[in-house]
Amino acid sequence: TAGLGMLAGSESVREEPFHLGEFSLATACVELEQADGSKSLGGAALMCEDHRLVRAIAMLEAVLRENWEGACETAELIRSGQRVLDEVAQTRKQIVQRTAVDFSMLDQET
After folding, report:
1. Residue 7 phi/psi, 5° resolution?
2. Please, which residues have CB within 8 angstroms of residue 42's CB and are 6 or more apart in sequence?
3. CA 74 to CA 52: how far, in whole Å?
4. How many beta carbons lie within 10 A of that of residue 57, not counting itself?
5. Contact in structure between 33 and 56 (CB atoms under 8 Å)
6. In what order do the strands lie in the sheet with 2-10?
7. Quick one: which H or E segment has residue 95?
8. Is the pLDDT of residue 103 over 90?
9. Most buried of 35, 53, 56, 63, CB within 10 angstroms?
10. pLDDT, tens digit, for every residue of 31-90?
11. How far is Cα 94 from Cα 90, in angstroms, rounded to an integer?
């Protein structure tokens, strides 16, 4: 299914609730069955509108949950992808640190 989610927050002084805005949300719940009759449930929810992606992730979750054929290879591909994402995040962090501006010097009289 697809729809909208609401991002809630609270005002810092009075702690009154308010809504920051809406975001796209797609969910999927699947039940897979193998030839031998064994079944597995999988589910996913993503902040996107890509139904095919959400369904695919739900299917992966079902396969991984029961450790079905291909689960080990799938898990390794997921770990490999996560390593790439971690490297990108680290690179971005280093770029931000190198380009950071120290505004504390602006308050000092010269």
Report:
1. -95, 115
2. 29, 30, 31, 32, 58, 59, 60, 61, 62, 63, 65
3. 18
4. 19
5. no
6. 2-10, 17-33, 39-46
7. helix 71-98
8. no
9. 63
10. 999 999 999 999 999 999 999 999 999 999 999 999 999 999 999 999 999 999 999 999
11. 6
Whole-number percent of the chain with pLDDT over 70: 95
Helix (H, G, I), strand (E, B) or coil at 99: coil
Hey, what are 71's tokens?
Answer: 């689960």
Both tokens assigned to 106 = 């602006």
Please name the helix (run of DSSP H) or strand (run of DSSP E) that holds residue 89, with its range, or none.
helix 71-98
8 A C-beta contact, residue 62 and residue 30 = yes
Q: Residue type at 34?
A: Q
Using CA atoms in the order 6, 11, 17, 21, what is the torsion angle rounded to 10 degrees? Answer: -20
Number of C-beta neighbours around residue 42 at 10 A: 21
